[in-house]
């Protein structure tokens, strides 16, 4: 058995040089092949592999899996609930099967015919059923920028910001998979200079460049998870576009925080990349000063060097890249997120989703939202084919991408594509 992260590995399945999905990745998702029901899949290059077909043909028989139903389920929750020893064994088995030196699957013409499918021939679905969703606020650059604009430039960060990972519980039902159109939301907004609100579609439609992790191991009410044990509970990560209506949000957020300005839609990538696939890309995070309380302290590198970018494509026009950032900039890491989330005894479940908050970097081109990139509309962004954007307009398409690169191995997440539809009348 060869280490699935070995940079020297290659597959008998063709993999383009710039692919997010080499044999070292082996992500998990849910796909609907033509004429069939949704089921668990993985991906190599431009090929999707139906895990239910592999199970039918006995390719997982050597693994100690009691519940084979996980390979036929319409979401990954039950598969993830098998636990890391088994899900990692499945990932390793898949790596072995796709290895260029292994003919076990490749030579089985009938199995390959039904299991190995072109990605364009399937419909990608939501990878998990999200029971609960939490959104954090983990980028010090983003928090400083937003605080400067709407709070006080001299006191941009709230007094608690460097002491705990600020977060809120969001709406799980409106999290959808890449390719789903989102209507411009309506709500109350207070025009500049007015003392009273008005009602209507948001004028300040925004994206937020985020990543999220999925928990794969639950806890009971009253239990807590330490930073040391946190990653045992985290199955993997995906790319996350947390849409925002800034004018609705800034009017309603006092005193209880995000509501209608945030719950109308968030869009995720269809592929969950395991923490094991991201292991080679660990880096140290920013220095945390002042020193955090003991339950938030940790050892080792808990951030990841993941390159991020966002493009805006107006209808019928070429895409313009507006942001290039990196996940490594986050001040608060995933282990601290989970430790803080559960320190009061809050129980978590398999399939719960936890977003990072907007990921902004130290330079203007690395800001992860239009609110920052256009500095609240005062610095419009120029588009490739003419025109400009302060915020997102109807029929614009937002495209997010993420990948890590080291030793010529690129581990990516695919795209998150979101088309903004006009408000419903």
Instruction: Assign a percent range to the helix content.
Output: 10-25%
**Unreliable spans:** none
Terminal residue distance:
58 Å
Please tell me how large the radius of gyration is: 22 Å
* Number of structural domains: 2
The CATH homologous superfamily of the largest domain is named: Fumarylacetoacetase-like, C-terminal domain
Shape: globular
Produce the secondary structure layout.
Elements: E1 29-33, E2 39-44, E3 47-50, H1 51-56, H2 77-80, H3 84-98, H4 109-115, E4 116-118, E5 122-125, E6 133-136, H5 140-150, E7 167-169, E8 175-177, E9 182-183, E10 186-189, E11 198-201, E12 205-206, E13 209-215, E14 234-242, E15 244-245, H6 246-252, E16 266-268, E17 273-274, H7 275-278, E18 282-283, E19 303-304, E20 307-313, E21 320-326, H8 334-342, E22 353-355, H9 370-373, E23 381-382, E24 388-389, E25 397-406, E26 409-421
Parallel strand pairs: 6-22, 8-16, 9-26
Antiparallel strand pairs: 1-2, 1-5, 2-3, 3-4, 6-7, 10-11, 12-15, 13-14, 13-22, 14-16, 14-17, 18-19, 20-21, 20-25, 23-24, 25-26
